[in-house]
Design a protein that fits this description.
Length: 521
């Protein structure tokens, strides 16, 4: 972030510079939102939210489907922008854009059921004269703080379920990659002409802190450290949070696996989007009998990958890393591992060119004394560790402060599932990678320090709502109820008889059971 001065007499106005990860050139300069501006935008969103909620699910769905159609109609422009600011190959950017359309379709199909009123039959006959209904009402204003690795889908895409729920949404994309999200918000308000319940603030930590103070629920995706700061600040105003804080996902390969498929899957799982995926395979455990063959196949696959930039015609698998500071972390993890005895069978270095580039790297002879096996690397690094058997693999897989996702490979699907059930992670894929992330019908959330809450399934929408229980008389009411004032011996006797009759079992219901004294005798 830099500052600029619009005139000699004015104070420096903070400006955010957005640069191309591929070569470091300047893409845009954006004004940074002040705390006052954040709160003013929040107030405007709150004012518009009741009418948005009043539209109902069907009315809100029409606007969100218009957003989906706009994304499709403007695909080329959006892909170009997403590639420029994030350094992605076209295939990775297209995946992100398609994911957003799927979110709209999935939420449109499920929201009428997930948000519908629920009638509840009371368990006590005494309450049968009331009709009980559980209603879901949205948090008026939801704040979404997005990361830089999937800057559009994990910002706008995480706000879409909140919009379906009836909330207004204030987005703060990463200061590294704000442009595509900014364009979507502009389209919502100008091209689509939807109600003014979606807005964006640009900035870094101070802007994010102001957003946390201004909203009713915060959804954050990012590092554990920043997530802890978000949670601490939200706690001061008792603002609920949903946190997705990354992971250190294990990839277990058992001796009866299809080695070719396991190796192909591991390379994609570790290096897709340059390893900048919260569910990347960041540590691989392979049983000894197939270890050598697995490593040989992995190294050959990695060496065949193409790095660079591409446009409308797909030509590479790996682009630039998105955030320059992340290169330092990746390099530190690789260097530290090598200093402790690990070997890089391919890669292991920064690429000597402008921009944010690191070679795809395969490490062997690794162990849990090394950062690369216990801390989130978030880069194009695939460390592989030999294990004696499945029990050792499970123990090491669970030896982590993270628990987001995992993969288990086995030639026996039943055995693979049994091992999967022992992995301490929010989702596990057998003989596959990221199916549980792609399937928006099931919850996707982490255990341990990987977060709180989930972003898929019914909870993707319902977590943005509060339940309200309403009791309505079914029959005409009288002037008083038996348990209201004034108390009397006659009324008390009837109440105590009712409590015994409806709560006790057997002969105790009519007072013929054993008299239960304090000491039970």
């Amino acid at each position: 972030m830099t500052t600029k001065t619009s005139s000699r007499n004015s104070a420096p106005a903070p400006v955010l510079q957005v640069r191309r990860p591929a070569d470091g050139t300047l893409l845009a300069e954006l004004p940074v939102a002040t705390t006052e501006q954040v709160h003013a935008q929040a107030a405007a969103l709150r004012a518009a939210q009741p009418a948005w909620e009043e539209l109902g699910v069907a009315g809100r769905t029409r606007h969100l489907q218009n957003l989906r159609d706009w994304l499709l109609d403007n695909q080329e422009r959006m892909l170009e922008l997403m590639q420029a600011e994030a350094g992605k190959p076209r295939s990775d950017a297209a995946t992100e854009l398609g994911w957003m359309g799927d979110i709209v379709n999935t939420m449109a199909a499920g929201s009428p059921k997930w948000l519908a009123d629920t009638n509840v039959r009371p368990h006590l006959p005494l309450l049968a004269t009331r009709r009980f209904t559980v209603v879901r009402r949205p948090y008026p204003l939801v704040g979404v703080i997005g990361p830089w690795n999937f800057p559009t889908v994990l910002c706008v895409g995480d706000g879409i379920p909140a919009l379906f729920a009836g909330a207004a949404v204030l987005l703060k994309p990463s200061e590294v990659t704000p442009l595509a999200t900014r364009e979507v918000v502009r389209a919502w308000r100008e091209d689509i002409g939807a109600p003014p319940v979606l807005d964006i603030v640009i900035g870094a930590g101070e802007t994010g802190a102001a957003l946390v103070d201004a909203v009713d629920l915060v959804h954050f995706t990012g590092s554990v450290r920043t997530g802890q700061l978000v949670a601490e600040r939200a706690a001061k105003t008792v603002t609920p949070v949903s946190l997705e804080l990354g992971g250190k996902d294990p990839f277990v390969v058992l001796r009866d696996s299809n080695v070719s498929r396991a190796a192909n899957c591991a390379v994609f799982a570790a290096l897709a989007n340059n390893g900048q995926v919260c569910v990347s395979a960041e540590r691989v455990y392979v049983e000894a009998p197939i270890y050598d063959e697995f490593v040989e196949r992995v190294v050959a696959n990695v060496k065949a990958l193409r790095s660079g930039t591409d446009g409308p015609h797909v030509g590479v698998e790996l682009g630039a890393m998105t955030a320059a500071p992340q290169l330092d972390i990746v390099e530190d993890h690789v260097r530290e591992a090598i200093s402790k005895g690990a070997r890089a069978l391919t890669g292991g270095n920064r690429v000597d060119r402008s921009g944010n580039w690191f070679e795809p790297t395969v490490l062997v002879d690794v162990d849990h004394t090394m950062k690369v096996m216990v801390e989130e690397t978030f880069g194009p690094v695939l460390p592989i560790m030999k294990v004696a058997d499945a029990e050792e693999a499970i123990r090491l897989a669970n030896d982590s402060e993270f628990g987001l996702s995992a993969t288990v490979f086995s030639g026996d699907v039943g055995r693979g599932e049994r091992v999967a059930r022992r992995i301490e992670a929010g989702s596990v894929n057998v003989n596959d990678y990221s199916a549980t992330t792609t399937c928006l019908d099931v919850p996707m959330g982490g255990w341990k320090k990987s977060g709180i809450g989930s972003r898929s399934g019914a909870t993707a929408v319902t977590k943005f709502t509060r339940t309200q229980s309403i009791a309505v008389p079914r029959v005409p009411t009288t002037d008083s109820e038996m348990w209201w004032f004034p108390y009397s011996s006659r009324k008390q006797g009837f109440v105590e008889w009712g409590l015994r009759f409806f709560n006790a079992r057997g002969l105790r219901r009519i007072g013929l059971g054993r008299d239960m004294t304090v000491d039970g005798k």
